[in-house]
Amino acid sequence: MNDGIKSSFVNGAFVEPRGDEQILENLNPSDPRDVVDRFARADAQLTDVAVEAASTAAPAWAASNPQLRADVLDRIGSEILQRREELARLLAREEGKVVREALGEVDRAGRSFKFYAQEALRASGEKYDSVRPGVSIETSRQPVGVVGIISPWNFPIAIPAWKIAPALCFGNCVVFKPAELVPSSAWALAEIISRSGLPAGVFNMLIGPGRSVGDALMRHPKVQAISFTGSEQTGRQIAAIAVERMARVQLEMGGKNPLIVLDDADLEVALDVAIQGSFFSTGQRCTASSRLIVTEGIYPEFVARLVERTRALRVGDALDPATDIGPVVDEKQLEVDLDYIRAGLAEGAILACGGERLVREGGGHYLEPALFLDVKPEMRIYREEIFGPVLSVLKVRNYEEALAAAEDTPFGLSAGIVTTSLKYAEHFKRNSSAGMVMVNLPTAGVDYHVPFGGNRGSSYGPREQGTHAREFFTKVKTSYQSS
Ligand code: NAD
Questions:
Q1: Active site residue 353
Q2: How far apart are CA 291 and CA 301, in angstroms?
Q3: Dihedral sign, CA of 455, 457, 459, 462?
Q4: Using CA of residue 282, residue 287, residue 293, residue 295, what is the dihedral sign?
Q5: Average pLDDT value over all residues in the chain
Q6: Checking DSSP bridges between strand 146-150 and strand 225-229, what pairing results, if any?
Q7: Burial 267-288 (b: 16+ CB within 10 A, else e)
Q8: Structure pTM?
Q9: Ligand 1: distance of its center to the CA of 222 in Å?
Q10: Known catalytic residue: 252?
C-alpha cells in the first residue's frame, strides 16, 4: 500500500498501486470532512486480471475438500464476530446507519459465513431408481465456476457476506465489486478473507466504478454467474447482458413495500412497526415500508400518534449513541429525496411533518423524516421507490381495499400487516404476492438462514440465502450407470 492508499485484492494479494490510478475518497456522510479511506480505483484491465485469476483457480477449488471450505468460512465468520464493534463503527462511519444497526448488520455477516461453513458439509446428491433394469441414476451438485458479485451501498458488509459465503461454500471462485460509496467495509472483509487460508485467485475484490469495472465484469466470458443487488435500472441492464451471453443471473432490486394497519391492530405494535420499518436506517432499505395503508377506523388516532413519534426521532451523527436516524448516504441521494418531497407537495399530498434538510456543523447530509398524508395511489411518492426517509400514508375503508392497494405496485419484495385477527393474518399471508410477508413485524428485518427475495420488479432468478442459495450457486448433473 502507498501512502495509506488502499486497493483491490487480486490473485491472493492486495494490488500495489501504480500511482496513476484515479483516487476514490470515501467520505463520512455524517461529516464529509472526515475521509474514511482513500482507494486506488481498479479499471477494466485489472478486472480481466482478476477474472483470469479466478478462472485459473476454479478447477482446484471446485474439487477441494469440503472440510477445507468449512474451516475457511468458519474462520472468516469468527473474525467478523470477534471484531464486531470495530467493523460496526467503520460501517456506520462510511454508510451512515447508526452503530446499533451496524452491529446487527455485522453480526448477520459473521453468522452468514458460519451458516455456510456448516452448509459446505451437508449432503446434496440424490439417487433414483431407473425405469430401465440394471441402471442406476444419481444427481450431484457442481460449482458454477467464476461468480461475479455486485453489491449496493446500503448494506456494506451483510450483502457481500450473504453472496460471497455461499459462492465459496459450493466451490465457486469469486470476483466481487462493492459499491463505490462504501468500499471500506468491503476492504475490511477482503482483508479478513485474505488471511483465511483460501488459495490465491479463489476470492478477488475490485474497487471501482460500476460503469467500467462492473460492466467489464458482467461482460467477461469467463464469468459464468452474476449475483447482483442494486437498483432496478442497473439490474435490467445486467440481466440483458447476462441473458445475451447465457450467463446465470440473480438480481435483487428495488421495493415499494406496503404496511397495512387494520382497525383491530394493537396501536403500540402498529406504531413501533411503522416507525422502525419506514425510518430506521434512514429509510434506505430495499425492504423499508414506504407505503402505509391504514383502515379508516384506526386512522385518526394512529396518524396523530405517528406524527408525534416521527417528530420525536433524533436525526444526527451515526456514531452518536443518542441518534435514532443517521444521515442520508450522500448529497446525490439527499437531492433525490428532496425532489420527491417537492413532487409530493406539488401533487397535493399533505406533509404532516419533516421533509426539511437539517444543516449541521460538518455539512452532513441530514434530512428530517418526512410523513405525507392524504396521499393518492397515483402519486409518484406512493408509486416510485424513493430510498429515503419519506413515508406516504393512504386511507382505505377496509381490509379488502387495503389488500388491493398493497398489491397495486410493480414491485413485490416485502409486505406487512398489523392486525390481531387470525383471519386477516392468514388471508394476507396466502394472498399477498410479495416474496416476504410479515405479520405484526416491520417489513424490514429478516433472518439469515431462510430464503430472501421478491417478485415482479424486485427480484429475478433464484432466491438468496439459507439452503436455497444452493439453487443459484450450483449446477445439477444427472449421471446414469449400468451395473
Ligand atoms: P445501483 O444499481 O446504482 O448500484 C449497485 C451496484 O451496481 C454498485 O456496485 C454499482 O457500482 C454497480 N453498477 C452500477 N452500474 C453498473 C453497470 N452498468 N454494470 C455493472 N455494475 C454496475 O444501486 P445502489 O444505489 O447502490 O443501491 C440502491 C438500490 O439497491 C435500491 O434500488 C435498493 O432497493 C436496492 N437494494 C435491493 C436489495 C434487495 O435485496 N432487493 C437490497 C439492498 C438494496
A1: no
A2: 18
A3: positive
A4: negative
A5: 97
A6: parallel
A7: eeebbbbbbbbbbbbbbbbbbb
A8: 0.97
A9: 22
A10: yes
Rounded Cα gap, residues 34 and 26, in angstroms: 9
Delineate the domains of the chain, giving CATH numbers in brackets.
2-254+450-482 (3.40.605.10), 258-439 (3.40.309.10)
Question: Cα separation of 198 and 205, whole Å?
Answer: 14
Q: In what order do the strands lie in the sheet with 5-6?
A: 5-6, 35-40, 23-27
**pLDDT tens-digit readout, 183-197:** 999 999 999 999 999
Nearest to 283 by CA among 436, 444, 143, 398: 444
Ligand 1 residue neighbourhood (C-beta within 6 Å): 150-155, 177, 179-180, 210-211, 214-215, 218, 229-231, 234, 237-238, 252-255, 286, 385, 387, 413, 458
Query: Greatest CA separation found in the chain?
Result: 80
- pLDDT single digits (tens) 385-430: 999 999 999 999 999 999 999 999 999 999 999 999 999 999 999 9
For a mutational test of ligand 1's pocket, the pick from 94, 101, 154, i.e. the residue with the most ligand atoms closer than 8 A to its C-beta, is 154
Q: Catalytic one among 95, 105, 252, 368? A: 252
Which whole-number Å values give the CA distances from 264 to 166, 273, 274, 370, in the listed order? 42, 15, 15, 26
Angle between helices 84-95 and 99-119 (to 10 degrees): 120
